[in-house]
Amino acid sequence: MTIVTYTIEQTTAGERIDKALSMLSAEWSRSQIATWISEDRITVNGEEIKAKYKVKEGDVIEIDVPEPEPLEVIPENLNLEIVYEDEDVLVVNKPKGMVVHPAPGHTMGTLVNGLMYHCKDLSGINGVLRPGIVHRIDKDTSGLLMVAKNDHAHHSLVEQLVNKTVTRKYTALVHGHIAHDKGTIDAPIARDPKDRQKQAVVDNGKHAVTHFQVLERFGGIYTLVECILETGRTHQIRVHMNYIGYPLVGDPKYGPKKTIDFGGQVLHAGVLGFVHPTSKEYLEFQVPLPDDFVTLLENLRKEG
Fold first, then answer.
1. Which CATH class is domain 2-65?
2. Of the listed 18, 59, 88, 138, which one is catalytic?
3. What NCBIfam families does the record tag this protein with (predicted)?
């Protein structure tokens, strides 16, 4: 049993308790919080409350968080596109819409489920739910991921990420006309203090650097860019491009409400390079844009 305590501040005062708590912790959904309220696991100032209770500034909320149930990762044949594989590492081209690793309520259809079916040997450093996973890309971002098949490889790849020696190039379609051909965004990123579900540029955030280069412009309305990650913060490209006024097309979290319906942000991790953990040879892989991305660009070109 774990007791978590929050004191409500002015920024969340007046919100329903389920919404307020979901804003304070991105780990919990409103439905999960509502379930805990019905199970009398949540009190406000020592008293049990209803789900419709609106929090007040200074309220002290205590949550009796139940112990998480252990999840069994079930291998699934997901026909993964394996770009490269040897006894140490594996490179996979993740399709848009696929979650990288399982989580409560989402235990099937993830990249990890597919990896468990494809190969039996994966590093165990990140635990049973994230075997072999050394970095991730968002559900609706397509493209390349490197996977460690043993702990030696895992340590090597993580060290390269920390030392910023991994090559990661993304193609993104953004709103707006970027007049200059290239640029660098050096702005720290942390959880958005106003919305716990999002990341934001925050003064005391973690160091984050994105380099970008314009590939194509579309009638002053959209710009196609290549983004090169120097660091790898959560949602980094999406946050940084929005920060400078050019949010990603289709991005439901950081983009404008009026955008192209693409089923998520138009972002593809097309190039991945790293030093092999054993041979010490530099390897670089490239995969083309997925068909829906290509079709979108062709339609924009036709529109002039």
1. alpha beta
2. 138
3. rluA_subfam
